[in-house]
């Protein structure tokens, strides 16, 4: 909880400072934009968090989102409902492939998802054949999903929060969720106590792919225009958000809520820089510096906790 | 060692297939002097960075910031050239900056004990961001021909591009460094079992630090080659190249868990990738399909050994 609090404070400071410079930043529309901009990355962090907790990584999420987005947009001409289902299925199939290779094939996830990052993007380009699908080709009802809202809350935000809640509940209160932390903390020990490590890791990749598929469908609704490059490079933003959000890159700790707040913080910093008229060129540099600071901080906290535990255990035995 | 030799032979067979298939599919334009020149020039930038990165991965670390260092180096060349610096001063300066970038990575990994994957994802964004901060989205292209010829013309009397000469020299240097020196043996020992390496008196942190500095310096050198080859200094030069380089290293049979790999394998792998890319592009296949094929090759290269003999989990 302390880590989430830290991110919240950082978020509050960024928002407060920016609001002082430009009052529009905290208008109703301003807040809506902040939330909407963070939504897709926040959604992707849900799957990524589960993967990273097990001491793995999924670099293919940007490509999965892109592939799913194009296939969805392309299927709309045939059947709108089918399109959404197909988008989700494409994501799930991508996750399935990653999961089989990593969870069951025991190939390191960094290498597998580096490979599938290229493979999925390649498939995306082969499918698209240089075409672009515009909002004019999509039904208004679907586009409203990306821009509309109920009771002032955008649909996108509601969907993201729902997915977050389900994942948080699963990770926090269900045995299969808690076991992910055990796997990430100590894979050998997890095997010894009888946790089905391969199957659990497989499931996290399946989840990550499915969520990326959902994000792909929603990306179509939000942007309306889709080509084969959608989501390129997004994986680094997602991993940055996860790490800034307090999920240890070496597995075993972190929450989806923290990661989502990390996504919100990063996208808010981006918007804030624009609002206070700092050249956008600084945005990437600041994100990078922040990411490094976050892991350094995380490391020092971990070391301090370990030292305290050692002292305590000495006190008990004495 | 046996499986290693087998993998390199497999790569060699693959290379022959690419060359023969490429020549057949492209109706002979592949192996003409011009074709070979283009393969070589396009290959050189990626291949240069793959050399020091091989050592880093053998030591069970990773550096994803290499393409951003390349971009920063290119942006600096542009800015300093606009400021009227002579290229003779810019080039060494840029390499020093690259080494400093590597030193920052090395410091964070060795002194603070942070995981290199996370650190270099961070510095990937940081260095690329700094590239945009110094040059913005401008392009600087008014370099004198006498310099850009380095990247666009072959060594007189041959088809060999100068960048390939540079690559061959560095490949020999890094090959000797990894396979024929105490330093190289230390790199293997660290990758195989860091704890054991430390207990046997190897200065683990210093060795890793040097590897990151070398990688940064060579990435900046690759930035110089890139800038001269395309006669264009831009902050976004080489974006995404880190994935290609890592692919080449892993395809070359270097284990992502460290402790295993050869410079020879990586050189073969870069040739396979370069030849494949060129044959496919000459054959009018979209570059994106090349990406797809590269990805499949990478998956096959890690999956084949994983099926035949299962590695122990994590770093052994």
UniProtKB/TrEMBL annotation, chain A:
It is a multi-pass membrane protein. The chain crosses the membrane at residues 6-27, 34-53, 84-104, 110-130, 142-171, 201-224, 236-269, 281-301. It is found in: Cell membrane. Keywords: Cell inner membrane, Cell membrane, Membrane, Transmembrane, Transmembrane helix, Transport. Its main location: membrane. It comes from the Bacteria. The complex is composed of two ATP-binding proteins (LsrA), two transmembrane proteins (LsrC and LsrD) and a solute-binding protein (LsrB). Part of the ABC transporter complex LsrABCD involved in autoinducer 2 (AI-2) import. Probably responsible for the translocation of the substrate across the membrane. This is Autoinducer 2 import system permease protein LsrC.
TrEMBL record, chain B:
Keywords: Cell inner membrane, Cell membrane, Membrane, Transmembrane, Transmembrane helix, Transport. Its main location: membrane. It comes from the Bacteria. InterPro entries: ABC_transp_permease. It is found in: Cell membrane. It is a multi-pass membrane protein. Pfam families: BPD_transp_2 (PF02653). The chain crosses the membrane at residues 35-57, 87-109, 116-135, 164-188, 209-228, 248-273, 285-307. This is Autoinducer 2 import system permease protein LsrD. The lineage of its organism: Bacteria, Bacillati, Actinomycetota, Actinomycetes, Pseudonocardiales.
């Amino acid at each position: 909880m302390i880590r989430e609090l830290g991110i919240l404070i950082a978020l509050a400071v960024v928002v407060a400072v920016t609001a002082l410079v430009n009052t529009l930043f905290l208008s109703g529309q301003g807040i809506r934009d902040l939330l909407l901009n963070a939504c897709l990355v926040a959604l992707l962090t849900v799957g990524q968090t589960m993967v990273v907790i097990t001491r793995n990584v999924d670099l293919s999420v940007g490509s999965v989102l892109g592939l799913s987005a194009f296939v969805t947009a392309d299927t709309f001409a045939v059947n709108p409902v089918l399109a959404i289902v197909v988008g989700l299925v494409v994501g799930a199939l991508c996750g399935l492939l990653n999961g089989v290779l990593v969870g069951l094939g025991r190939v390191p996830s960094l290498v597998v998802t580096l490979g599938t990052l290229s493979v999925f993007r390649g498939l995306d380009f082969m499918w698209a054949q240089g075409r672009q699908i515009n909002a004019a080709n999509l039904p208004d009802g679907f586009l409203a999903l990306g821009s509309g809202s109920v009771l002032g809350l955008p649909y996108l935000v509601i969907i993201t929060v729902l997915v977050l809640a389900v994942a948080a509940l699963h990770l926090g209160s269900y045995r299969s969720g808690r076991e992910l932390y055990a796997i990430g903390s100590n894979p050998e020990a997890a095997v010894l106590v009888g946790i089905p490590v391969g199957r659990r890791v497989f499931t996290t990749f399946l989840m990550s792919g499915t969520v990326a598929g959902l994000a792909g469908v929603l990306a179509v609704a939000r942007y309306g225009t889709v080509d084969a490059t959608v989501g390129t490079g997004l994986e680094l933003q997602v991993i940055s958000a996860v790490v800034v959000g307090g999920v240890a890159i070496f597995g075993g700790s972190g929450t989806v809520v923290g990661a989502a707040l990390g996504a919100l913080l990063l996208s808010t910093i981006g918007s804030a820089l624009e609002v206070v008229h700092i050249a956008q060129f600084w945005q990437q540099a600041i994100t990078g510096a922040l990411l490094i600071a976050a892991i350094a901080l995380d490391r020092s906290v971990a070391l301090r906790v370990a030292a305290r535990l050692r002292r305590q255990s000495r006190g008990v035995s004495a | 060692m046996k499986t290693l030799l087998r993998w390199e032979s497999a790569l060699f067979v693959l290379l022959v297939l690419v060359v023969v298939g490429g020549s057949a599919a492209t109706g002979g334009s592949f192996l003409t002097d011009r074709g070979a020149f283009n393969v070589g020039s396009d290959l050189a930038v990626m291949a240069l960075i793959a050399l020091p990165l091989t050592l880093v991965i053998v030591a069970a670390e990773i550096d994803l910031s290499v393409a951003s260092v390349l971009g920063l180096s290119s942006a600096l060349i542009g800015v300093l050239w606009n400021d009227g610096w002579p290229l003779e001063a810019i080039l060494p300066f840029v390499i020093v900056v690259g080494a400093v970038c590597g030193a920052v990575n090395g410091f964070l990994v060795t002194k603070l004990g942070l995981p290199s994957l996370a650190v270099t994802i961070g510095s990937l964004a940081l260095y690329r961001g700094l590239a945009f901060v110094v040059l913005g989205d401008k392009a600087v292209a008014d370099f004198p021909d006498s310099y850009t010829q380095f990247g666009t013309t072959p060594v007189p009397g041959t088809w060999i591009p100068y960048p390939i000469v540079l690559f061959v020299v560095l490949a020999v240097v890094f090959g000797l460094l990894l396979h024929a020196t105490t330093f190289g043996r230390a790199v293997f020992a660290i990758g195989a079992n860091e704890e054991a390496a430390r207990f046997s008196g190897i200065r683990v942190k210093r060795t890793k630090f040097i590897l990151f500095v070398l990688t940064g310096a060579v990435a900046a050198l690759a930035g110089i080659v890139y800038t001269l080859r395309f006669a264009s200094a831009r902050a976004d030069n080489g974006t995404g190249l880190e994935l290609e380089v890592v692919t080449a290293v892993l395809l070359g049979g270097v284990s992502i868990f460290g402790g295993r790999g050869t410079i020879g394998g990586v050189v073969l792998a870069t040739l396979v990738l370069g030849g494949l890319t060129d044959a496919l592009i000459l054959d009018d296949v979209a570059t994106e399909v090349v990406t797809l094929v590269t990805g499949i090759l990478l998956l096959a290269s890690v999956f084949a050994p994983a099926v035949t003999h299962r590695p122990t989990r994590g770093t052994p």
